[in-house]
Amino acid sequence: MMPLTRRRFIALLSAVPALAHGTPAGASDTLNIVVTRDPNCGCCGSWVDHLRASGFTAKVVETGDVTPLKQKLGVPRDLYSCHTAEVGRYAIEGHVPASVIRRLLSEAPQAQGLAVAGMPVGSPGMEVDGHPAEVYDVILFGPNGRRVFARFKGADEIKAR
């Protein structure tokens, strides 16, 4: 189990008023997300916890081989990570912060999805005590190519877009 960080505590607190009314924070059909992951990967479970704490309703599908789904959704091989999700009409690959997924759904660009390649330290689900957070890019990808959609250092977005 991941330690209760300040960020997780604040996310949990923000959900309390909504839970009192019986609905997750910010609930709507667009916040339903299906996460396909290997059942033996612990960081994937921590990313799902991050999504749920941020108001997403996450359904988890466990499989020993996520590659066929990645291929079906058109995730570029060099952007592969440890889990793949589907939300609305988009693919989400890897440890993408929930705030950027919300922005994707709000802006609705012509694309296939977002990806955080690899497993950068400090990204949601990859917090490691005693290790500094890395800077990482969230890549928007699709038939028109790819571009940096957001840049983060750990949980903090760097506003140079």
Describe the structure.
The protein has 161 residues and is an alpha+beta fold. It has a single domain (6-158), classed as Glutaredoxin. It is 27% helix and 27% strand. The protein is built from four helices and eight strands. Strands 2-1-3-4-5-6-7-8 form an eight-stranded mixed sheet, sandwiched between helices. Strand 3 (83-87) and strand 4 (90-93) form a beta hairpin. The longest helix has 15 residues, at 6-20. The protein is globular and about 40 Å long. It starts with 5 loop residues before the first helix and ends with a strand.
Summary of the model, kept short:
The protein is α+β, with helices and mostly antiparallel strands and 161 residues long.
Topology record:
Blueprint: H1 6-20, E1 32-37, H2 42-53, E2 57-62, H3 67-73, E3 83-87, E4 90-93, H4 98-107, E5 113-115, E6 135-142, E7 145-153, E8 156-158
Parallel strand pairs: 1-2, 4-5
Antiparallel strand pairs: 1-3, 3-4, 5-6, 6-7, 7-8
